[in-house]
Amino acid sequence: MGGRIPERTRRLIIATDAEAYSARDYTGQVRLQEDLHEVLEAACTEGGLDRASWELQVQGDGEIAVLPVGTPEDTALSAFLDGLAQALHHHNRPLNDAYRVRLRVAVHQGNVAYGRNGFVGTPINEACRLRDCDLVRNALADAPGADFVTVLSHDLYKDAVADGTAGLYRWPFERVAIEIPSKAFRAEAWLCVSSASGQGTGAGQQGGREGSGGRSAPEGPAPAAAPSGKAPDDGAGPGRAEPPTPSQTFKVKKGDMTFGDHYGPNIRNYR
Prior knowledge:
Elements: E1 9-18, H1 26-47, E2 55-58, E3 62-66, H2 73-92, E4 103-114, E5 119-120, H3 122-132, H4 134-141, E6 148-153, H5 154-162, E7 174-180, E8 185-194, E9 200-202, E10 266-268
Parallel strand pairs: 4-6
Antiparallel strand pairs: 1-3, 1-4, 2-3, 2-10, 4-5, 6-8, 7-8, 8-9
């Protein structure tokens, strides 16, 4: 075996994936990839983040982003979540449900490096497992009015949220336990489901009966409705419909999780 072992550096990791990519046809998958790129670019613009400095490993319906060495974690996380909420709200508001972009986002930290086929390091694997576990998938599926769900590793939450100075208090995270026996993976993490208005809903704020499908509406006034439109009958394109309703609440039921690894080999910078 030849070659030099790449040097690792401690970085902030953001792993993103779009919901229901494989359920779309060819045209829908092409469109979703374009939409995902536009949304993440807009999220960084809205949050004042320099996305051109991020190292990216694209995955078709998602990406792994490794931020520059020395990135202030609490500030970057707060800016990204606020920017993503705005970007998804503006992107999804005029679209029918079939065309909306809904995301699972996992954020972690740790020592990573670049290998021949992409990022290397246990924190990369852990970020993807947090993002793709059933608990996080179900949290988004059970909140049809939400644009995205965020899961943070325990260490990142402790360092950047619990003791952070940025405006992360607007995102009420709830502690969850994730276990993936097939991967020998167990972790404590922190979950937050966004509402259609861009605010967060923690698991502890959820209503309804566990496992029963019952849900109650969140407290507080609903966002102002936009003018309604009519969707096209032929399904050929995104018509203008009513904006998403406020996020319905959900109850996470903890248990064994399953996960399928899917990595892409491409690393690139967007300039």
